[in-house]
Design brief:
heterotetramer; A alpha/beta (351); B alpha+beta (288); C alpha+beta (165); D alpha+beta (92); B: 288 residues; 2 domains; 8-stranded mixed sheet; 8 helices; 32% strand; globular; D: 92 residues; alpha+beta; 3-stranded antiparallel sheet; 3 helices; 27% strand
């Protein structure tokens, strides 16, 4: 068992935590920190007999997650206050949706930036309303990054609150405009479900599709163990509803997202034993193998052990999101930035 | 290697064997080894790039908690890189206590907390308290204040990082074998570590209860002065001098309120180290 | 340790003598005068996070500066044409008849270290170094806009590190 | 009628000089000036409109003055600042 698979097995079967050696704990803690799942296993360990030191570290992580969740709730409140006067529907995405709807991925989950989606034609209106309430674009206008976002991405440059520092990612769809698939945000808006905080969440099938797409397209599967854990929790929860699998299938077809969904279901099945109809999962491919290698490839210090797989996944992530000439330009820009960094490191050591 | 400082165990590794050896030596009085313990944080000092292991060697840190903007450190300053890594883990990852950027020392298990910016004279004052005035050294840089009811202070007695002109001040008073290597040309000028007295290291598991808070202002030639802080002033100073208090939620708020309500806080200004010591002793006499 | 409501209610309906004891004119200050100071959790990272790294990390952190900053600290848009007085670049703010503004490149590594900025402030480097002055203007703008971004937490930690009441 | 209501999820602590309000949800700590403290304390748990709050302030302090404009509008601006920080709610 690798340190990563130890983490996966503890998530599947938390009782294992009562039988770990100190060496296993050390590896587990490292990988859980890297994968941002320490708070999650902290919550899963509630009431279990674990060594004192493990207890301290787990409780600490769970406590921090809960403080951050409170702050995230507050940011949702303030965001809703800012956008309510516009009358536009606002959909909470990912972490904040799980939080406000109290869904099973939530306990101990670290919730950072606030992701929301509004109709495309009301994007600038939403941006203006947020700016009136203290949020500001982080990237300076006119730089490569800003125009890149506005021209090609599925979201605006991040907005940070001027005093609190909380960040909002304002989306109009779930995939970059450069991606080869084009899901239909208007269907997501039409199906959205109101919550009592004043914002909406996606309908179950679409919430899962978004999570799956995010995983399959977020290039290098960074944080994949956590995203797959979200998927596992959501699937097990939603599958209790009678028509869920049918809804999911038709939603995937409508949004042209059957293939990212299949990949997410395959991977979460492999990692966490997530149940799903075999027909929806489809057949494993080379990318699955690379992804699993990466997901399982941490050493006992949490450092990656599979650089080649990771590099191929990195290239693939960018390829999926951009047409080739753009990809070249993008990677070149990144490469130049790194080269400048390296030069500077050299200078410093010459001193 | 594994190393325990106060309540935290660090797993430290590096392909640079010499760096590890000098770390082992500097921390020779601290618990090391502990292969069967669950440790708190891992810190690795790795070559910036693979060839930097041999060619103009320089170090980057890989650890449980890191900041993005850290710059590489030359191998000859490896001790500082480790120190930076260890401090970073405490500042960013340790949440069981309030972490104040402060020195501290105890007498009869009651503690003075010395809070101030670097350059304010905090390290020197804390070195003098423990090496000249018989106080138990509890830390020169981070003070851990408990979240539970009694706001007790957990010692974190790392070697004292002396800088520039404070080095000769202490060399006069302490034998040479308690000093680490002299590190020239660091970002902070010349740095040399001074090991706390062995007793203080051995007593690092014994908590102390804060009884006095001082904020030193060392200005050459200044005449000694004491000014009592209001409670809200003390709250503000300590809150912004903490790496984590604002992120701890209500328990952090509670603990700090209790601390500043029960423990008096003072600004002290002085022109020589001796005067600084005298002011602390005077205030200590008042709280006793 | 009062939860809002409980003690407060008691305080608001005091017996008559207490009211008299507290009677003094309440003066509401000008609006521009801040009446509340807020400590927000993100400040812990900005001020304290750096502190924990032995202050080394504060001074070692990097504050990136974009290329092409004008003398007022504004980023010069990429489409603006530059002219030269010898080696000194400039552009016209609003066409040929507009204000002539000098333009400065980023520092040679593309960023300052915390130490460089701190030293620069202490030595009044901005008085004689027009490039540094422009960069300081830019940093002030970044800082005042309160937005995050690479290096801003570093900058905050340098310029906020001595809190004065 | 627009009411100002103190948010319940806060901790209010009076120190020897100023007062602190800790907001449980946001994790923010607000340090109130004496003037803000007086206003905050004058807002009853059940809520009140600006006029009633001014009346309550006068009951404690006798006289309420403003450096700029009339006390009522100065008070409204301060109440809005409290609302902006989320420690008071404004219900219409």
């Amino acid at each position: 068992m690798t340190p990563s698979t130890l983490l996966h097995s503890v998530l599947r079967e938390p009782q294992r935590m009562e039988r770990l050696t100190a060496e296993q704990w050390n590896a587990l803690i490292r990988v859980a920190r890297v994968e941002m799942l320490m708070g999650t296993i902290g919550m899963l360990s509630t009431g279990m007999h674990v060594p004192d030191k493990a207890r301290l570290l787990l409780d600490e992580a769970a406590a921090i997650a809960s403080v951050r969740q409170n702050a995230a709730r507050y940011e949702v409140q303030r965001m809703v206050e800012a956008l309510t006067p516009t009358g536009m529907p606002v959909i909470l995405m990912k972490g904040s949706a799980y939080l406000m709807a109290d869904l099973p991925p939530c306990p101990g989950r670290n919730i950072g930036d606030l992701d929301i989606m509004v109709p495309f034609d009301r994007l600038s209106e939403a941006e203006a309303a947020l700016k009136r309430h203290g949020w500001q674009s982080i990237k300076a206008k006119g730089t490569y990054d800003d125009s890149y976002y506005r021209e090609w991405m599925h979201e605006l440059p991040p907005l940070a609150h001027e005093t609190r520092g909380g960040v909002i990612d304002l989306h109009h769809t779930i995939l970059p405009r450069t991606a080869r698939l084009t899901p239909r945000p208007e269907r997501m808006l039409a199906n959205a479900i109101p919550t009592n905080c004043g914002a909406y969440i996606m309908a179950p099938a679409e919430m899962l599709l978004h999570s799956a797409t995010h995983l399959a397209y977020d290039g290098d599967l960074q944080g994949g163990a956590r995203n797959l854990w979200d998927i596992d929790r959501l699937v097990r929860h939603f599958a209790e509803q009678p028509d869920f699998w049918d809804d999911l299938k038709s939603a995937a077809t409508a949004h042209e997202l059957t293939s990212p969904l299949a990949r997410a279901l395959r991977l979460s099945h492999r990692l966490y034993g997530t149940p799903s109809p075999a027909a929806l999962r489809g057949k494993p491919d080379l990318i699955d193998r690379l992804a699993l290698r990466k997901l399982r490839g941490h050493d006992r210090y949490g450092a990656p052990t599979t650089p080649i797989s990771n590099f191929i996944l990195f290239l693939r992530g960018h390829w999926l999101r951009m047409p080739l000439p753009m990809l070249t330009r993008h990677l070149l820009t990144k490469w130049r930035a790194r080269r400048a960094e390296a030069r500077q490191a050299g200078r410093e050591n010459d001193q | 290697m594994r190393l325990r400082i106060g309540p935290a165990i660090f797993d430290i590794r590096s392909p640079f064997g010499g760096a590890i050896a000098s770390l082992r030596h500097l921390y020779r009085d601290y618990p090391q080894g502990m292969p069967d313990e669950i440790y708190d944080f891992t810190v690795a000092a790795l070559p910036t790039t693979p060839w930097r292991r041999w060619f103009r060697p320089s170090i980057r840190l890989q650890a449980d908690f890191t900041v993005e903007e850290a710059v590489p450190v030359a191998l000859r300053h490896a001790l500082l890189a480790f120190e930076m890594g260890v401090n970073m883990q405490m500042a960013l990852g340790y949440r069981r206590d309030i972490i104040l950027h402060a020195a501290s020392a105890a007498r009869d298990d009651r503690a003075v907390v010395i809070v101030g910016d670097s350059g304010s004279g905090k390290s020197t004052l804390s070195a003098l308290l423990s090496w000249s005035a018989g106080w138990r050294h509890c830390g020169d840089e981070l003070a851990l204040i408990g979240l539970a009811g009694d706001y007790s202070l957990t010692p974190y007695p790392r070697p004292i990082g002396l800088k520039n002109q404070s080095i000769p001040v202490m060399r006069e008073r302490v034998s040479a074998d308690r000093f680490g290597p002299r590190l020239e040309g660091t970002m902070k000028g010349t740095v040399q570590h001074l090991l706390p007295p062995v007793d203080a290291i051995q007593a690092m598991d014994r908590p102390a209860r804060p009884a006095l808070i001082v904020s030193p202002h060392f200005t050459a030639g200044a005449s000694p002065e004491i000014r009592r802080m209001t409670q809200s002033e003390a709250y503000l100073r300590l809150s912004v001098a903490s790496t984590n208090q604002l992120t701890l939620g209500e328990p952090g708020f509670d603990a700090l309120i209790r601390l500043i309500r029960s423990v008096p806080a003072y600004d002290i200004t002085y022109g020589t180290s001796e005067e600084g010591l005298q002011l602390v002793e005077k205030l200590w006499g008042d709280v006793e | 340790m009062t939860d809002q409501n409980s003690d407060q209610e008691g305080m608001m309906q005091p017996k008559e003598p207490e009211v008299n004891a507290r009677r003094r004119v309440l003066k509401l200050g000008a609006v521009a005068v801040p009446a509340i100071a807020t400590l927000t959790p993100s400040m812990a990272m900005a001020t304290g996070g750096g502190v924990g790294g032995a202050n080394i990390s504060i001074l070692a952190c990097q504050v990136p500066i974009p290329d092409r900053i004008d003398e007022d600290g504004e980023v010069v848009p990429a489409h603006k044409n530059l002219h030269y007085d010898g080696h000194q670049a400039y552009y016209y703010e609003n066409g040929k008849r507009g204000k002539k503004k000098y333009v400065f490149n980023a520092p040679y590594q593309g960023h300052y270290s915390g130490q460089e900025i701190k030293d620069g402030y202490l030595n009044n480097r901005y008085i004689h170094d027009a490039q540094f002055k422009a960069h300081v203007e830019y940093l002030q703008k970044m800082r005042n806009s309160g937005t995050g971004g690479a290096g801003i937490s570093c900058l905050m930690s340098i310029t906020n590190s001595s809190y004065k009441t | 009628m627009a009411l100002y209501v103190p948010v319940e999820a806060v901790r209010y602590e009076k120190l020897d000089d100023l007062s602190l309000v800790f907001h449980r949800l946001s994790g923010e700590t607000h340090i109130l000036s004496p003037e803000m403290e007086a206003i905050y304390e004058a807002i009853p748990a059940g809520g009140a409109d600006a006029e009633q709050i001014l009346f309550r302030l006068e009951a404690v302090h006798g006289l309420v003055e403003a450096e700029e404009g009339d006390p009522a509008s100065a008070l409204c601006l301060r109440l809005d600042q409290l609302t902006e920080l989320g420690i008071v709610r404004h219900i219409s």
